[in-house]
Design a protein that fits this description.
The structure holds two protein chains of two kinds. By secondary structure, chain A is of the alpha/beta class. Chain A is built from nine helices and ten strands. Helices cover about 70% and strands about 0% of the residues of chain B. Classes of the chains: A alpha/beta, B mainly alpha.
Chain lengths: ~250, ~350
């Protein structure tokens, strides 16, 4: 059984904008799947449907055998705890400390009153510091999140996702807001996480990154899958099909 | 994403709305014109409903006239309806003043000013003629009598400063408790939090209705209610300020909550946090600074309101003011006025500085 099974996934934004058109594919455990496509091709929508931040209009999404689209709120919470997510604009809580941001990763495990009062247990705090060390910024723990640079903020996002110890990591254009050098560092972290056995599904713009990091690539155009295979298989012809006739390759080394 | 096929039906509702607004404006012009004609033709002063005495043909003429003017206004350039309700732009080469909507707006302002002047019976001559009557008042204000500043006035059962402290506490308490109550209410009145289930939407509309009703009733009137309910005195004043502040703050809070960034909330949600955890960690940190600023602003208003709420039985330093005024004791009235002015001034300054620091 594949870890993630998506069947006939369709998303229509009212009144009649078709974002995803009958998408079906499967993801095995341990894959590094990269989704490429133009802005507006449906990449973000697809990722957000997987953990139901966006409600699909039709179709089924099965994560480890459990149906996500019809899960109750309790079941959904449990599913979300196993799926970590990082975002293009980092989505940190700007006025809170970096450490608090990382700690929010394990809110699901905390009782109501402890979380309301902000009393995180010592082991959780230690784990949070550990995760910050894993992403290389342990000294930033007590700074306000908006004092950090873009690359550092994204690393905090990764640390937050790691706190969940997820089996699947979703990354919605994690490097689109970063410069080429920092992008490489972030992608390296994702690759490290993948090496440890976690499945990674990410969306990207740059073909170079796709070729360097992915084990599999899916091309989306206007909400439909136009390519599904190894990254090397995207030759010039396929590239034009996914990105359009006018597109030209930009190199980012 | 695939774009949908464009509908070929003319956007009737969209075109009706600016037209109706234009018609409303022309009807207003008709009203003001008839009012002015009435007031200058028949008597010097006409009640606002005096314009409604039209012969039968007058009504038909007015309706047809305004209707055609509204239709025509769209042909003389951008009418007010179009400007306000659609996205059409004035060509940048045309200065604002000579466009259709520009001229119409100017006439609106002029006519309203004219009619307003007539209905409110403003008479500049009186200001000059009756000025000498106020000499007693000004004399009292400039020669204040601080006899009972610290010493207790037996008739009032208190001193001015003592009552002032009382008043300040009244305002502080009302603002604090009102603010604490308003915080969760603010979330319940925010569209982005209260979407989803049918139950939540109903709650949202009820909460919003509650805010609007309670806010519309000024603290002074609430004080009358509470003075009857729990008796005259500072408690009534405190309750009145409290309930009005709670509604006003909740409305402001809810607007803040609606303006928050969805991103951090999505992020906390995606980790498997519960609804309340998401609010506490994703939404609340974004709104706290503005909350504090609103609280301080409200405190300002409440202090000022607390000084006069004695008018309707709310207790506080206003008692002194109105008592001395009834005795025509202008010197002591002056004393109370000066004390109030100084305190409010100081508080304004402090809260201004504090708000600067927060936001």
């Amino acid at each position: 059984m594949a870890q993630l099974e998506i069947n006939n996934l369709t998303k229509i934004y009212p009144p009649d904008v078709l974002a995803l058109d009958d998408i079906s594919f499967e993801v095995e455990k341990g894959e590094f799947l990269i989704i490429i496509g133009l802005s507006g091709s449906g990449k973000s929508t697809l990722l957000r449907c997987i953990n139901r931040l966006i409600e699909p209009t039709e179709g089924s999404i099965k994560f480890e055998g459990q149906e996500v689209t019809t899960a109750s709120s309790k079941e959904l919470k449990a599913i979300r705890e196993e799926i970590g997510m990082i975002f293009q604009r980092f989505n940190l809580i700007e006025r809170s400390l970096v450490l608090t941001n990382v700690l929010t990763g394990q809110l699901g495990e905390l009782s109501f009153w402890r979380s309301m009062l902000g009393r995180f247990p010592k082991e959780m705090k230690r784990a949070a510091h550990e995760k910050l060390e894993t992403v290389g910024i342990p000294e930033q723990a007590f700074k306000r999140a908006d004092e950090l640079s873009g690359g550092q903020q994204q690393r905090v996002g990764i640390a937050r996702a790691l706190m969940q110890d997820p089996r699947l990591l979703l990354a919605d254009e994690p490097v689109s807001s970063l410069d080429p050098a920092t992008s490489g560092t972030i992608m390296d972290y994702l690759a490290q996480i993948n090496d440890q056995g976690k499945t990674v599904i990410t969306s990207l713009h740059f073909l170079d990154l796709v070729r360097k990091y992915g084990t599999r690539a899916i091309g989306l155009k206007d909400g439909e899958i136009v390519y599904d295979g190894p990254p090397k298989g995207i030759d010039d012809e396929k590239f034009k099909e996914v990105f359009g006739e006018e597109a030209e390759k930009v190199h980012i080394s | 994403m695939k774009k949908p096929k464009k509908s070929t039906f003319p956007d009737l509702l969209g075109r009706a709305k600016p037209f109706l607004l234009d018609w409303l404006i022309w009807s207003y012009f008709a009203y003001t014109t008839i009012f002015l004609l009435n007031s200058y033709w028949y008597t010097q002063y006409v009640d606002w409903y005096g314009t409604l005495t039209l012969p039968p043909w007058g009504w038909i003429l007015t309706v047809l006239g305004t209707f055609s003017c509204a239709l025509a206004s769209e042909y003389f350039g951008l009418s007010i309806g179009l400007k306000a309700l659609t996205d059409q732009e004035t060509p940048p080469t045309k200065p604002w003043l000579i466009t259709n909507w520009g001229l119409t707006s100017i006439f609106l302002v002029v006519f309203t000013f004219w009619v307003g002047w007539l209905t409110t019976d403003i008479n500049l001559g009186i200001i000059i003629r009756r000025a000498p009557k106020t000499i007693g008042l000004w004399h009292g204000l400039s020669h204040p009598n601080f006899a009972h500043l610290i010493e207790i006035d037996p008739e009032m059962e208190g001193s001015i400063l003592g009552s002032l402290v009382n008043t300040l506490f009244m305002a502080y308490l009302a603002t604090l408790i009102g603010g604490v109550l308003a915080a969760p209410l603010g979330f319940l009145g925010a569209r982005n939090i209260m979407g989803g289930s049918w139950f939540r939407r109903v709650f949202f509309y009820l909460t919003r209705a509650f805010f609007n009703v309670v806010r519309s009733v000024e603290s002074l009137i609430w004080a009358i209610v509470f003075a009857i309910w729990i008796g005259f005195g500072p408690a009534a004043g405190a309750f009145a300020l409290l309930i009005h502040s709670m509604a006003a703050l909740a409305k402001l809070f809810s607007e803040q909550v609606e303006a928050i960034d969805k991103g951090p909330i999505e992020a906390v949600q995606s980790t498997g946090a519960s609804f309340w955890q998401t609010i506490r960690y994703g939404a609340v940190p974004q709104v706290i600074p503005q909350y504090m600023a609103f609280l301080l602003y409200r405190l300002d208003i409440n202090v000022r309101m607390a000084t006069v709420i004695a008018l309707v039985g709310g207790g506080g330093i206003g008692r002194f003011f109105f008592y001395y005024k009834d005795q025509l004791d202008w010197e002591q009235v002056g004393a109370v006025t000066i004390v109030i002015a100084i305190v409010v001034w100081i508080l304004d300054y402090i809260s201004g500085k504090a708000r600067e620091k927060i936001v």
